[in-house]
Write a structure and sequence with these properties.
One of its GO terms (molecular function) is ATP binding. By secondary structure, the protein is α/β, with parallel strands linked by helices. The chain has seven helices and ten strands.
């Protein structure tokens, strides 16, 4: 039986940032209903950084949308402590607004008083290393800068859970590497919980404390890895490369087992 997204009681001690219990999701298709996610159970602890990894079409983004409350599971329950903030692959900034005004919009929707919004927006821009960019229009920003503004806007929602759907996939390798550093720094400074979707194995290992591999459709939790490599990490570090190779071998086996190319 489908259940709505539940919000955890703030009075109770927080044991998780997100709790996914026996969640399945199916969609109607030409051949009837198609099962996309099957019996997913997963917790994200307060302050934990978890990456969701899997082949294209395995249901990673679908699961993230369910956690965000943009859709409801066909079965199972999802609980979060407070409302999550969501960051997409595309920056989704409003081009007619400045960088600062894009952030202020999120603050306004959160109920922050008008006289406090600019100062808070400038603080968030400084946090993402864009001090002095309040008045810049979207077309004046590079791809990496736009994603930094999008990150600041997500942080403006004052959520303890940040959901990220392949936010760096469209960026060049150097910019992506720099934003990995920035995200790690912000995560460590703020104590946020992060659930990060990617199909890039090395990105998953570079960032996460825990990597969760979903099988090909229907998506199921195939395997998990604790990443005990100290931060700061680099994509090219030997321990990152070694664990990435291990995970890649398992991922290849999942893809072959499900007949995908």
């Amino acid at each position: 039986m489908a259940t709505a997204l539940a919000q955890a009681d703030d009075v109770v001690a927080v044991e998780y940032a997100a709790r996914i219990e026996h969640v399945s999701k199916s969609f109607a298709g030409p051949a009837g209903r198609q099962l996309v996610l099957d019996d997913i159970t997963l917790d994200v602890a307060p302050g934990e950084f978890v990456t969701l990894l899997g082949a294209s079409g395995c249901g990673k983004s679908t699961l993230l949308n369910l956690v965000a409350g943009l859709d409801e599971p066909s079965a199972g329950t999802i609980s979060t402590h407070g409302r999550p903030a969501l960051m997409f692959q595309e920056h989704a900034l409003f081009p007619w607004l400045t960088a600062g005004k894009n952030i202020e919009l999120a603050l306004r929707l959160r109920g922050v008083p008008k006289n406090e919004r600019r100062g808070r927006a400038e603080e968030l821009l400084e946090l993402v290393r864009l001090k002095g960019s309040y008045g810049k229009r979207v077309h004046e920003l590079s791809g990496g800068m736009r994603q930094r503004v999008a990150m600041a806007r997500a942080l403006a929602q004052d959520s303890q859970l940040l959901l990220m759907d392949e936010p760096f996939a469209a960026l060049d390798a150097i910019t992506r590497d720099l934003l990995h550093d920035e995200l790690t720094r912000i995560w460590e400074e703020t104590g946020l919980s992060v659930l990060f979707v990617t199909h890039n194995v090395r990105e998953a290992v570079r960032l996460a404390q825990r990597v969760v591999l979903l099988s090909s459709r229907p998506g199921r939790v195939a395997r998990e890895w604790r990443v005990d490599i100290p931060q700061p990490r680099r994509i090219e570090d030997a321990p990152v490369a070694e664990l990435s190779l291990e995970i890649t071998d398992v991922l290849r086996g999942e893809i072959r087992r499900h007949g995908q190319h």
